[in-house]
Amino acid sequence: MGISVITQKRSRQAPSRSSTSAVKVYACQMNELVVSHRKAKGQTLRLAVWYKIDHPKNLYLFEIVDGFPNGNGDSELFTVEFGGSDKFPIARQGKLYLTLVNSDEALTAFKESWRGTPDIRSSLLQGSFSILFQDKRGTQRLNQILSLHA
Q1: Could you say which of 12, 19, 34, 109 would form a disulfide bridge with 114 (CB–CB 3.0 to 4.6 Å)?
Q2: In the structure, how many helices (H) and strands (E) does the chain have?
Q3: Domain range 8-147, its CATH number among 3.30.460.10, 3.30.300.30, 3.40.50.1820, 3.40.190.290
Q4: Does pTM top 0.85 for this prediction?
């Protein structure tokens, strides 16, 4: 029995050629990465959003994860940068930027414009994103984040 991944692309504008090709090239890899994150012990993935999908070089993944440590008062999202690998090749010496926040801090981060949220917010508002996974709580958080900027 496999784990099903909900893939949804919200877009308010027609995707550019570069975003269409990037989605085609990396969709399987990004979905597999999210599936592996869903299997992490001690943490529950609530939302995974591939944002800035039209970026010509880099990949950006934002995840809301229950069980991820809070920022202890830091007003910036936790972001880690990865180069390509044999298991996850990235063309043109691009990077994967994985940004994580726990469910409890997610809304506060966007309300207070923590470092890292403006790029995510901009992509959401422009429709330059793809939802790779969401559960009920993740859907609620995403709707709350979107309503802050409606």
Answers
A1: 109
A2: 4, 6
A3: 3.30.460.10
A4: no
